[in-house]
Amino acid sequence: MNKLDDFQVVDRTTWQAIEPHTIFTKQQLEKLAQTFPMFDPTEIKVIYQPLMALLELKLAIQSKQMQQFSTWYPKINAQPFVIGIAGSVAVGKSTMAALLAAALKIIFPNLQTELVSTDSFLYNNAYLDQNDLMQAKGFPISYDTASFIAFLKAFKQRQTNLKIPIYSHQKYDILTNQQQLVNNADILIVEGINALQRVSKDEMPVDLMDYKIYIDADEKIIEKWFLERFERLVKEATPNTYYYQFQADLNVGRSLAKNTWHSINGVNLHRYIGPSKINANLILIKGPNHHLEAVAFKKY
Questions:
Q1: Residue boundaries of the structural domains of the chain
Q2: What is the pTM of this model?
Q3: What is the CATH number of domain 7-298?
Q4: Tens digits of per-residue pLDDT, 206-218?
Q5: How far apart, in whole angstroms, are the C-alpha atoms of residue 181 and residue 164?
Q6: Which residues are within 8 A (CB) of 154 and not within 5 positions of it... i.e. 6 or more apart?
């Protein structure tokens, strides 16, 4: 069965013709492009204005449903809207999630938006070492899924001052002395390789998400992006960080990165990440330059 059999694929031209009620001004597009230089103003407009139209619709539907529920069950409070974003390592999830958060604040200035990464729920390296899981880092077993679910439920219940761990890519570990504070908000964006995964018959984080997006690209392109990101992290590394050790011999680092892709990240993509796209409502298909080539809507 084709992996997109359950989706309707539309090309870039059709996608960009969708218009939201509110559009970005030229100044807003330029400011977003300055903040996120991976995308020029035109690309941001093409990707995010149609996405805003979809999210406007989904938010309106949820708001109407909650209003109807409140007439039957007055004690039920309106729940926040949770957006899940998944995709391979290095496919651009974090950048897209941050750009989406910034775009939502423009389109919905009266709504509060929070952004978290599923990396916050990775077990720390000490735990992974102790349980012989370092070679499975990023696989489902390396995440504290119970804590992830508990956080999402607490957020859905509009609890305030929620504290979650912070994962540092430079340290390659959970930070021991810092936490992210997540307050009551109207919209939560959750991004990470495992955001949409269903690896158990029990309740999973994906069950608590209202709209689900998967970012896709050809595997060879993603591998190239991963190796480029590795070199960038090495060049930007400061002493006492994980990637700094490779500045003395970048070829050693390149060799490690290639091995990491083929023995861990590529395996994870085939075994767990890629199959989770079936749980998405929308798939964004990117080309070599991170530009949108097509989108796929869930049919059923």
A1: 7-298
A2: 0.95
A3: 3.40.50.300
A4: 999 999 999 999 9
A5: 7
A6: 162
